[in-house]
Amino acid sequence: MVANQQKLYSELRMIRNELLESLNKNSSIKPLIEDELRDIEETLGKMESGTFGFCESSGEMIPDDYLSIVPTIKSIDDVNEISKYYCKPIYH
To answer: Are 13 and 44 a contacting pair, CB within 8 Å?
Structure first.
């Protein structure tokens, strides 16, 4: 795993632990927490198997910019959907 992926991996593991802790406390949002946990588990598995960052449909590489924003992103279609709302700052 590259350094950036190692950082994301650690962050996802922390988030997973936090979600597991809150799973029993917040029954009203339990389905949402379970969905998020499922996405995180899938992403951690991809990182461990070396398939992280590839579109599940086409096999294309997902741009690192998007992976750093939404590490659980699954496809180029998801990237295109997010791109509708993403804009780069004018000033640096």
So the answer is: yes
Chain mean position to CA 27: 23
81: which residues sit within 8 A by CB, 6+ positions away?
Answer: none
- What is the number of domains present in the chain? 1
The pTM of the full predicted model, rounded to 2 decimals, is 0.82
> Dihedral of the CA atoms 63, 70, 36, 82 (nearest 10)?
-90
CB-based burial of residue 15 (10 Å sphere; 0-12 exposed, 13-18 middle, 19+ buried)? middle
Within a domain: 72:
yes
Range of the domain at 78: 3-83
| Overall residue count recorded for the chain in this entry | 92
Which pLDDT score, from 0 to 100, does residue 82 have? 84
**Percentage with pLDDT > 70 across the chain:** 90
